[in-house]
């Protein structure tokens, strides 16, 4: 009896599905365009009246109140979709089509929502407006915060058709950090940067909600939400990281220090703890909304509280308001070392395999994490300085825009360099071979689970490994029932198995703690990660996949007694990618995405700096586009 199913397509979506998705987007774009047009013609709509009600109720300008609420709700909706979608792919494999996956709808609608939140902020702009705006027409000026949200939403929305285009050219990319996935997820997690700026602009025009303690709390909440970029650690949270372990420490160190230091500077005592609590609330929402879904793998998450406590303790030693840079740098140094060490301890309790990492890996991880955390601290000082200048209704005429101008760029630069050095997975281990022994013969067709014993040559090849374990995934396929499908031993989820390798006592020999699947839709391999960025796979099984035309789509089946040479892990994990695409075309595709992102980050910085400028300087006249 065969357990294989007809595989879904490995390229782009069917044309009719593109039309359906385009029709959904067209309805939303057309509706929001109609609202903006009517608004600019001074013909109120029910949306503009609702915006006025939101403004009256919240004490914020109409161009902040409604767009910010829509943005936050849309991010939560999209986040729910992503936390549902990624496990589906890990457990099921490819989609029959983009609209056949129910998790794509909240993602798509969420992206449409926060993109048009920015456009509504532009369309609803009415006096009182902040002193620094962009003039779109003689009587139409828009706040900088709305431009940040719109730009982030635009790159996320473009990512949807770009993703299908990428699949058609290069084949499907199943990693969270694939170029077009970074466009969609990156736009979603950075659009929140517009909210603190919008609130600061609201404070500048005297918004009631931004006065006193309530205003400080609201600003602190918006800054705390800037922790959302840790969404890029989702594969680590799910136990299937496709990038080197050091990147988890770099991203966590940078984002945690940036946000915790910024909120502490903005709010005062307790600000870092408030930010830490916000992080836990966001992840609790995602965890609890996914938990009731039947058979879906739930993501774990790091704790963050040790880092928040450390920032508060540093504030007792170094006065944050009088010595900002020393406070930020010391906070980064301690958070990147002691704080991330605390996260490593937490990973022993809550994080999935392949965590916790061995103690021998910590010097590299904590060193890179500390550098990244110091960069995050520098960004925090710039971020808060800009927001304070924006919120001040009467800044001095040389306004404080030059103050700490380059600290933010330096901080982001540290992060970008660390990711460029450590993030790309690399091949290696040319001298390593793996002898495989199975306790059961499998033919790949009938249901078969076997204990795998592997003997490495040289015997010490995995002695200093960051991780070495067995991963089986996409075993559920398109099955309508989970009955009989092997389940993960750690989280009891069907279609995925993360299994420890245990030393047998013989030199260089390891055995899987549980029998692993070598049949049907499953893909099974041993993962060997060596410091700093070498990521190797010992392929054990993969089905023949007729939808993949290249050689990488043919069946892989290791037999008892075979000797296997490890390969670059990406080659086996992402077997849907095409093998006949010129390297130059790949380089061009990646270069375009990277250039777009670097340009967008610089645009965010420009918006903040322009918003922070004083009105009286001749170099700070209103910008016309």
Descriptive labels:
625 residues; 15 strands; three-stranded mixed beta sheet; disordered C terminus; 51% helix; 3 domains; alpha+beta
Q: Which term fits the overall shape?
A: globular
How many domains is the backbone divided into? 3
Largest sheet: 10 strands, antiparallel
Terminal CA distance reads 66 Å
Radius of gyration: 26 Å
Helix proportion = 40-55%
Q: Count of DSSP E strands? A: 15
Estimate the mean pLDDT confidence: 91
Number of helices: 17
Q: Low-confidence parts lasting 5 or more residues at pLDDT below 50? A: 616-625
Secondary structure category:
alpha+beta
Strand portion: 5-15%
Care to describe what's here?
This protein has 625 residues and is of the alpha+beta class. It has 3 domains: 17-210 and 579-611, no CATH class; 226-426, no CATH class; 433-565, no CATH class. Helices cover 51% and strands 11% of the residues. It contains 17 helices and 15 strands. The strands form 3 sheets. Strands 3, 5, 6, 7, 8, 10, 11, 12, 13 and 14 form a 10-stranded antiparallel β-sheet that branches. A 3-stranded mixed β-sheet has the order 2-1-15. A two-stranded antiparallel sheet has the order 4-9. The protein starts with 14 loop residues before the first helix and ends with a strand. Residues 616-625 have low confidence and may be disordered.
